[in-house]
Amino acid sequence: MRIQQSIENKLQNQLEPEFLQVENESHQHNVPSGSESHFKVTIVSAAFEGINSVKRHQQVYRVLQEELQGGVHALSLRCHTPTQWSELGEQIHLTPNCRGGSGH
Fold this sequence. Notes:
Blueprint: H1 3-15, E1 19-24, E2 38-44, H2 53-63, H3 65-69, E3 74-80, H4 82-87
């Protein structure tokens, strides 16, 4: 199974999100074509109610422990409650361009 699919499956099964988007952003970095090393995750779940951002990230890290110990080099997280997501206008955060690793 591909890493992205594994991330999606685990988050879906364990955090039951109302919204989940997992984007492979590896192509924006200095890695071989077809790599699965850099991901952006936007997740909206009632499981995040009443806990701060650090604890939300820790929940995701626990779920994805295997992937983080393997080939995943970077994981950008946006973890929202359903209310926060609604207040944000359900907008995905844009990732800035990579500024390193390309020899520039």
